[in-house]
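Q: Start with the shorter request: fold the first protein.
A: Done. Sequence, then structure:
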Amino acid sequence: MRSPTCMWMREYPDECAGVYVQFPLPHVAPATITQALLELTGASIAQRPEEPQILHVYGVLEDTWRESEIAWASVPSLDDPLDKDGDGKMASIPDNFVRHGRNDALIQGHCTVVAAEPRTYMLDVTDFIREQTDDRATFMILREVRYDGDIADGATVRFASKEGGAGVSPKLVLFTK
């Protein structure tokens, strides 16, 4: 059963899901930001949770979406995720669905989820935050095919949502001069 306290990421083509998080940004000069960290709390709920689930984290420039309106058909920076090469699986590089060529999804790094118990994962996103020109920052977390033949590994990851409570909700931590 789904809970409003969780955000889900699955990799199966008929259940493809990514996680989008958005944060308001304070009005500070970019040069005063010494470090920006994206903090997520999550756990693998795969059949074998000890096997690493490698997720890519993108900074998304298109951040005019609203939580109450976002749906798979309208999310920013994604193309149709369904089986572009026609083999019935998302298992080859052409099956990836992030719009890399349009420069609106910028890779920030990866998050390797390796346990069934919730853990906190942090990623340095300083450069992306310094380059924001509006009052929001959006991040997209999802699993992509990393190499041809990278087939379904039962990757299901659960991240705490903002409703999960102050201790585990996603955070953007800014350090300034």
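Q: Next, the second protein, separately.
A: Sequence, then structure:
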Amino acid sequence: MGRKERRQMERVQKAESKYYTEKVYTRAEANMAVKQIVAKQAYEMEKSARKHAVRDLSAVLIETLRDEFGFGLSRVIKFMKRANKKLSCVSSGHVTIDDIIKQWEIELQIDQDEFYRLTEVD
């Protein structure tokens, strides 16, 4: 390699070093980094979807409580606080949705099939 080619290569390497100052990863490290990024993004998307689902369901429930049962602001706030407490219990694993449904079956004397039929959305 002649002097001209060496200098040209040095200029290219110097220019690249300005843009590529981060560590060079092995294939395994790169795969691990990508998996971590994808897992984090999936978690954030799931969290966002849950948040929007709860918000949408809450809006429909509050609208129903106001329209059908005349709930005012204080009763709506009490309802939402209590519902959020129950959701926290479910998300922390203290109780499951199946446990809640089983309790309804006992208290309301309704079997699970009938409950699902009543709660189906058109």
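Q: Describe the second briefly.
A: The two ends are 76 Å apart (CA to CA). The CA atoms of residues 63 and 69 lie 10 Å apart.
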